[in-house]
Amino acid sequence: MKFFSCASCQNQVFFANSQCVSCQTTLGYIASEKDMGSFEQHSPVLWLALNEKYQTKRYKPCYNYQHHQVCNWVIPAESNDIYCESCVLTYTIPTLDNPDHIVYWSRLEHAKRRFLYLMQRLNIMPRPKYNDDDRYGLRFNFLMPEPEHPVLTGHANGVITLNASEADVIYRETTRIKMGENYRTLLGHFRHESGHYYFDLIKSLHPELVDEFRQYFGDERQDYNAALQRHYEDGAPQNWDQFYVSSYASTHPWEDWAETWAHYLHMMDTLETAYYAGLIVRNNRKDTHDLSFYENPIGAQDFDLLLKQWMTLTFNLNALNRSMGLEDAYPFTLSAPVLDKLRFIHKHVLGKAFARQIA
Hints:
The protein has 359 residues and is α/β, with parallel strands linked by helices. The chain folds into three domains: 78 residues, no CATH class; 115 residues; 154 residues, no CATH class. It is 39% helix and 13% strand. It contains nine helices and eleven strands. The strands form three sheets. Strands 3-4-5-6-7 form a five-stranded mixed β-barrel. A four-stranded mixed β-sheet has the order 8-9-11-10, covered by helices on one side. The protein has a two-stranded antiparallel ribbon with strand order 1-2. β10 and β11 form a beta hairpin. α7 packs across α9. The longest helix is centred in the last third of the chain and has 25 residues. It comes from Acinetobacter johnsonii.
């Protein structure tokens, strides 16, 4: 994640901010610029950008920004659209007659925007799914479960469904413990489920990559439902950590891909944040490396260098968390087969294999 500043006072601002805490200037994310804008409000739907790069441009807040305060993105004032590039992807939300549902929806949208920011940075931003037959678009359904209608988080045919109860911290943490997971976050759900969406794009747009995929992840044509049932009945193989990034990844090649894809996104976002923070770590152990950045990790060609930086960064993040009495920030180890899978993803993200024909 890049670091941003207020155009009025140069104070640091963050991706989720809608107002500068220093000078109270109105803020909003300009997706086309991949930047936080500072604005002078001429009217509720006409904001003049104060940033030097686009001072003459006029914007308006997303409908969900203006009416529900669950968004902080803006769109060009002359656009006929009322929703920003993030909110337009949301097809279904919980009913808003319950105040808790508004809180859950806001948390889900915040996590989605963070996920989409990285997709923008990687130049693989999804577009809306125009209709049920649209093979390349993406749509989100945020659903609250009911006693007779449970909601399963998952992906099918360009539609990602999220159980909105996951935005309840107590529910999510209880589920994490029940499932025996080390890590469970809203952002992680978006990144994992998006892996299924992008895999479908690979198969559809780049069938020549499928054989290479199977070399690393296995044959995805094996029975998924049977594999899932076997996983929940018998658990993961005892040696799963020698081949997979998580126990759930051992279930089926689809889940191996989605889990590894999510970890790639975790890595790239965190490394970019460290880059913009100017973090430098001097090596004081034989099994770690110096951490310093000569280029932005986004788009970097030398993936082995990125892996060294990642190992050093996560080692120190975990040590810092332990000093605060917290669990590890990154409770995973990466075996050689997992590193090869991450290299496969990086190679084809750099080659923009995911981007062609989805615009």
